[in-house]
Design goal:
Helix content is 53%, strand content 16%. It has 678 residues and is α+β, with helices and mostly antiparallel strands.
């Protein structure tokens, strides 16, 4: 694979390894910089020695790659807020009692049912300078106050640490936030907030003001709200106000990627700006003017789109393409890709853990690497058939490349993705051109009625087409399990297969066969591990009781009738079932006695009736049973008491106090999450 022969590829690879090492292993900053200094000294020494003796060039190469790993490691630690002394995470009191917190609004996030949500930057806590990012949740009020980016706020409150998932194998929102350097949330009412008179005017403020101005001007023009929200997502990358139904349609149709501004959108912008600048002559000065105009246009678009990871990646990469064209050099697309990765991660290493960033880079790499191979299978004679074939091969290359990662994260596969892309891409090119024109004019308070109506109709029919494709649910494959080791094995097989197809040889075929063996070994290892496992789970199911037993790949669920009827579609059970490659085999109504691996478990329901002299190992309290907890513990003498989420919180506090008094462990699922017994 020629890509890996580039020194830049190996340096980037080493840098990424360093970032991963720094992310998963916390090292002493002093020790790290001592190691960094030593490696720089060794690198400089090897450089001068290799100049004098060419035999030492190999050692210089190894030293270079090791130095790139150490630089990646130090970059990750430098950019991690946890290592900063004035970060709020080191102030433990802020998580225990209310304090006066001064913060600045950075970004408006998607609102929840009960509150408006913002990304905010902490400035001071009780007049002491502190830093860090938090999620600010403001309870909805009748007046529906909306804060602006740049607003300075003063709030008295207690920060809440990010909580791990309340149920097994659920999406880890806590980890997701930590990857974005957000370690806590703050909940407040409107009347608890004091808004400062000063507004912090930075790039985020002006970006938000420009977006708001465009949106308000389009709203004045009676632009339909549904289509406007989709237009804002397509052109400006802001998905906060799109309805869940529309997002679901785009997911099922395999077109959700077009709602996130990425390489496809930036490519249209580059082509459009290049077309407008065609009248400028290709003289030395004219080419320079074109380059500066393109770079400014791409940068402005990136700022308006909120500097999302996929936008930054695309803008950076296409900027290098434009610079390469200006220098009249043949642009090596792999070098462009690697330089953009290195630059972006050097300034924002947290982007490496962003799903959109991962998917967009993998899709782009496979389009560059695999699409020519697919395109060579058939050479159409006519322009129309060649255009359709090119769209299909690009779609297949991107989908093949992202398929394992998409299944790993989302556990589904839209079977009609190729039909969607073949129809959507031509429409999207029209929408992008119209959208950029309409929003550019709207930014200057110019309302082009005909153009805005044309844009609205285009998006309306795009949504209709997407909805029609998404309605064919029989083509949507859901609940696909994929373990992390299977993900790595699948990519190993995919890479070896493509390398073999490009230039077949016996050695490459042997690598394919070894990859298949590794994939099979991974699958059977995971399957064996699951087959030998036995688990008892008390779920944290709001206002209800749900208990499951898993024996290998077979799950038995205990619950009331209403939950049993929809158990197959229950989201809590679905996540657990998919991750453990298991199936729901039995459903039983909740019963008082459950025996698991020699453990006697007693489930106390709302009746509050319990037998004497049974001495269960575990008591599960449900449905806010009216009992004297002290007496129950004395009579039953359990080794553990569990209270699930069907109980009122005030009753759980009394039970917890009783258990503490009698030195019995107490586990409330509403507080600690699910309980698992192996």
């Amino acid at each position: 694979m020629k890509v890996l022969q580039f020194p830049l590829a190996r340096i980037t690879f080493g840098f990424v390894i360093g970032l991963l090492f720094g992310h998963y292993f916390q090292l002493s900053i002093k020790a790290l910089f001592v190691v960094l200094f030593i490696f720089i000294c060794v690198f400089v020494m090897l450089y001068f020695l290799s100049k004098k003796n060419s035999k030492l060039s190999t050692y210089f190469g190894i030293g270079t790659y090791l130095l790139s790993v150490i630089i990646g490691l130090s970059t990750q630690i430098i950019h991690t807020d946890l290592f900063k002394k004035n970060n709020y995470t080191h102030n433990k009191e802020i998580f225990e009692q209310p304090h006066i917190i001064s913060l600045t609004i950075r970004e408006k996030l998607k609102s929840s049912t009960f509150s408006d949500r913002y990304l905010a930057i902490v400035n001071h806590i009780d007049q002491k300078e502190q830093t860090g990012r938090i999620i600010l949740n403001i309870q909805n009020d009748s007046l529906h106050h909306v804060l602006e980016v740049g607003n300075s706020l003063l709030i008295k409150g207690t920060l809440a640490k990010n909580k791990p998932p309340n149920n097994p194998n659920q999406f880890d929102y806590s980890k997701y936030l930590e990857n974005k350097q957000i370690y806590a949330q703050l909940y407040a009412d409107v009347d608890e907030i004091k808004i400062g008179t000063e507004i912090e005017k930075n790039i985020w403020y002006y970006s938000s003001k420009l977006r708001t101005r465009i949106i308000r001007n389009l709203e004045k023009n009676d632009f339909n709200k549904t289509e406007l929200n989709v237009a804002i997502a397509l052109i400006m990358g802001q998905q906060q106000d799109i309805s869940p139904d529309i997002i679901r349609d785009y997911q099922y149709a395999g077109a959700v990627h077009i709602l996130s501004v990425s390489g496809l959108h930036i490519g249209f912008i580059l082509l459009f700006v290049t077309f407008i600048l065609k009248p400028i002559p290709n003289t030395k000065r004219g080419s320079f003017v074109k380059l500066i105009t393109i770079l400014i246009s791409l940068s402005m678009f990136g700022i308006i789109a909120g500097l999302a990871p996929s936008v930054v990646r695309s803008v950076t990469m296409f900027s290098f393409v434009a610079i390469g064209n200006h220098l009249r050099r043949s642009v090596n697309i792999y070098h462009t890709l690697l330089v953009s990765i290195l630059l972006i991660l050097l300034f924002e290493p947290s982007f490496l853990f962003d799903v959109g960033f991962q998917l967009s880079y993998i899709a782009l790499f496979f389009i560059i690497w695999l699409q020519p191979l697919l395109s060579s299978i058939w050479k159409p004679k006519y322009k129309v058939s060649k255009y359709i074939w090119d769209i299909l091969t690009v779609s297949f290359a991107a989908q093949i490349g992202t398929l394992p990662l998409s299944i790993y994260y989302f556990h589904q596969f839209p079977g009609l993705f190729f039909v969607t892309n073949m129809i959507v891409i031509p429409i999207l090119s029209i929408i992008m051109i119209l959208g950029v024109l309409v929003m550019l004019l709207a930014a200057f308070n110019i309302i082009a009625l005909f153009l805005s109506q044309l844009l609205e109709w285009s998006i309306y029919y795009l949504n209709k087409i997407i909805n029609a494709i998404a309605s064919l649910e029989q083509f949507i494959i859901e609940d696909i399990p994929l373990h992390f080791y299977l993900l790595l094995s699948a990519y190993l097989l995919l890479f070896t297969l493509i390398i073999w197809f490009k230039k077949p040889s016996f050695n490459k075929l042997a690598m394919v066969l070894i990859s298949i063996l590794i994939l099979q070994f991974s699958y059977f290892t995971i399957a064996y591990k699951i087959q030998t496992e036995e688990e008892f789970i008390v779920f944290n199911s709001r206002k209800s009781t749900m208990i499951a037993e898993r024996n290998g790949e077979n799950i038995l669920i205990y619950a009331n009738d209403s939950i049993l009827k929809t158990a197959q579609r229950n989201n809590l059970l679905k996540s657990y079932r998919i991750e453990n490659l298991s199936t729901l085999q039995q459903k039983k109504r909740l019963q008082n006695f459950i025996f698991f691996n020699g453990k006697k478990i007693f489930v106390l329901d709302s009746s509050g009736i319990y037998p004497k002299n049974i001495n269960p190992d575990i008591v599960v309290l449900t449905q806010s049973a009216k009992i004297n907890a002290d007496r129950l513990i004395q009579i039953m003498k359990p080794k553990l008491v569990i209270a699930d989420a069907s109980n009122f919180k005030n009753i759980q506090k009394l039970w917890k106090a009783s258990c503490k008094k009698q030195k019995i462990p107490f586990h409330a699922t509403a507080e600690k999450g699910f309980y698992k017994l192996n």
